[in-house]
Each structure stands twice: as structure tokens, then as C-alpha cells.
Amino acid sequence: MLKDITFGQYIERHSPIHKMDPRAKLMLLILMIVFLFLSHGFAGLSLFVILLFAGIALSKIPLKMFLRNLKAIWIILVFTAVINLFYGSGGVLLVSFWKIHIYSEGVKRAVFMALRIMLLIMLSSLLTYTTTPNDLTDGIESLLSPLRFVGLKNAVHTLAMMMTIALRFIPTLVEETEKIMNAQKARGADLEDGKLLDRIRALIPILIPLLISSIRRAYELAEAMECRCYNGGEGRVRMKRLHYGKVDLFAAITCVFVCVGIILANYYINF
After folding, report:
1. Which residues, at least 6 apart from 133, have a Cβ–Cβ distance to it below 8 Å?
2. Residue 238, SS3?
3. What confidence tens digit (pLDDT) does each residue in 119-171 have?
4. What are the distances in angstroms from CA 47 to CA 8, 76, 112, 181?
5. pTM of the prediction?
6. Among candidates 123, 215, 218, which has minimal Cα distance to 161?
7. Neighbours of 66 (CB within 10 A)
8. Cα–Cα distance for residue pair 193/23, rounded to 1 Å
């Protein structure tokens, strides 16, 4: 399952999505996430599905890369669906057993919540797949630049750097975890069978080496940055300046139309 986690990776392609300004991609992602949670029905989510598949097609990244992220969180999807299955109390009664009552509205709500999480993960993956860590850092720092007027200029750069490093090292930590698990299995550790409590205890020999490895990597990264005379954002310049283009404008207009469609769907379409 760990091999299915591709979130945080950058996939190089020559596509309009890759050429977009990172600031535009960040702002549009935040806007889409907000309206994703403001959507009340499947009509609104269908607009997100169309927008997402259009973005995937333009990015030239295989759909299976996005589906792999969903495979890694299937437990969360199933848990969310099961929990919401018992909240809907309207519609047709489908199952009635002891104190358990499942209505058609509960099934609708469970599917809706699972689909919402899937769209959230896939939209976020579209950003990380098409944006390099350096561009992501520059975009976050540029968007937070107004904070420099309140004396937080270095803090903005540090925050942007921390967020980018965290995203950058997700695939590295996943790979390191896979290596440790394989090493423990080679020594006879049983990580997949047994009771739940036994499987949790079996994770301790994995978590401790992973923690030590992460701390060691952090020290190595800090030393490498010091050797390159890194001293924060003060006096630093960018090799590539950010600028908005026609693709960013077209993407912004498209997202605005989607948002308007979601608002109309919430008021006029009861589905």
C-alpha cells in the first residue's frame, strides 16, 4: 500500500498545467476546496468531476497516478462512508435490523462524502504533480508576502520552505518505510497477520528506525544548507521570476464559472 502513495511527487511534462504560475494554481486550489465543501449535492460535484478530468487531460499525467493515491486511503474512504451511512434518516427504508436503520438518504450521504474526499485528494495531487518544489516555495512565499509589512518577512520564507520540504520528503519517507518493513520481514517479523493489537505492536520496530532516519536526514539537510551559505530569505533573489499568463487567466475564468454553477446548483437543483 505504501507504494501507492505518490502525493508530493513532481511528474515532469510539457503541458499547460505545468506552465501555469504556481501562485495561480495555489489560489485556484484553495478556491476549489472551499466550494467543494460548499457544494450540497451531486450536481455540484459533477462540475468538479468535469473540471478535474479536464485538468488531468491537459496535464498529460496518467489517470492511474491519481487513482493510486485513492488506493492508499481506501480505509479512510470506507470508514467515512460507513459513518455517514447511519446519519441520513429520510427517503426509503432499505435495511432494518435491531437498532440499525439504513435509509436511502443515508446511502446518498455516504456516497457523497466519499466522493468529496476523493475529489479533494485528486485536486491536491494535481497541484503537486505539476509544480516543482522550488516553484511551490516561491508561490507560497509570494502569496504570503503581505505579512512582511508586519515584520514577518523571514518568517514567511521559513514557513514556505518548511511546507515545501515537508511535501518533498513525503515520497522519501514512504520509500524509507518500505525498506524498513522489508528488512523486518526478512528477519521474520509478521506485520500483516494476527490481531489488531499485535499488528500495532509490530509497528514499533518500524517507527523507531524511521524516526531515527528522519532525524538524521534533517541534520544532513541542515548541514547541506549551511554549507551553501543559506541564511533565510534575507537578500535572496529568484532565478526565475513569477508572472501570470494567458493560461492562468483562462483557468481562473473556468474556475469562476464552476463556482457560479455550484451556487446555482445548490439553490435550484435538489440532487
Report:
1. 10, 164, 165, 167, 168
2. coil
3. 988 888 888 889 887 788 788 878 877 777 776 666 777 777 787 777 777 77
4. 25, 24, 14, 41
5. 0.75
6. 218
7. 22
8. 46
